[in-house]
């Protein structure tokens, strides 16, 4: 029993000394105008495989090795401008990212009365609305 305790202590010390130091970035992504949380927004380190997606509160968590300290944090969601910030400039443990809405221009699109709108959607003046939530896509004429 004593040997098992010593073995566990040695393994714990060994794993702690070989584990890479990590940078943890926590935060929330919100709409710059309304302050509403942006759900399913992509937050990632540019050029890496370190990716997170915001939850229904707009919060996210990304853990990356210290060696990526000079990388750039990117936040992006469809219908919004991308947000860029070097990790080296993050001086807070919790960051609030405000994304500005940007229109998506649709060209050469024809909508006529014979087109079928999928069930669960309604068409109003220039905006397609889902009965579940309003789409961020706007149609400009």
Descriptive report:
The chain has 141 residues and is mainly beta. It has 2 domains: 21-99, Carboxypeptidase-like, regulatory domain (Immunoglobulin-like); 104-141, no CATH class. It contains 1 helix and 10 strands. It has one helix at 2-18, and strands spanning 22-31, 42-45, 51-53, 59-65, 72-76, 83-86, 94-99, 121-124, 127-130, 134-138. The longest helix has 17 residues, at 2-18. Residues 127-137 have low confidence and may be disordered.
Q: Percent of residues in helical segments?
A: 10-25%
Q: Bin the strand percentage.
A: 35-45%
**Biggest sheet features:** 4 strands, antiparallel
The helix-and-strand class reads mainly beta
Q: Estimate the mean pLDDT confidence.
A: 76
End-to-end separation: 77 Å
The topology string of helices and strands comes to HEEEEEEEEEE
**Unreliably modeled segments:** 127-137
CATH homology-level superfamily of the largest domain: Carboxypeptidase-like, regulatory domain
CATH architecture of the largest domain: Sandwich
* CATH class placement of the largest domain: Mainly Beta
Number of domains: 2
Radius of gyration: 22 Å
Shape: elongated
Number of strands: 10
CATH names the topology of the largest domain as Immunoglobulin-like
Total number of helices: 1
Major sheet strand order = 3-2-5-6
Compact description:
This protein is mostly beta strands and 141 residues long.
């Amino acid at each position: 029993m004593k040997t098992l305790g010593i073995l566990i202590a040695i393994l714990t010390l060994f794993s702690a000394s070989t584990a890479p130091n990590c940078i943890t970035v926590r935060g929330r992504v919100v709409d710059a105008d309304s302050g509403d949380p942006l759900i399913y927004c992509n937050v990632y380190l540019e050029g890496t495989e370190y990716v997170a997606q915001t939850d229904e509160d707009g919060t996210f968590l990304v853990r990356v090795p210290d060696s990526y300290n000079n990388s750039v944090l990117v936040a992006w969601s469809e219908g919004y401008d991308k947000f860029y910030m070097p990790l080296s400039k993050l001086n807070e443990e919790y960051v609030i990212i405000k994304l500005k809405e940007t229109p998506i221009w649709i060209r050469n699109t024809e909508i006529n009365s014979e087109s079928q709108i999928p069930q669960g959607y309604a068409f109003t003046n220039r905006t397609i609305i889902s009965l579940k939530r309003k789409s961020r896509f706007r149609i400009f004429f």
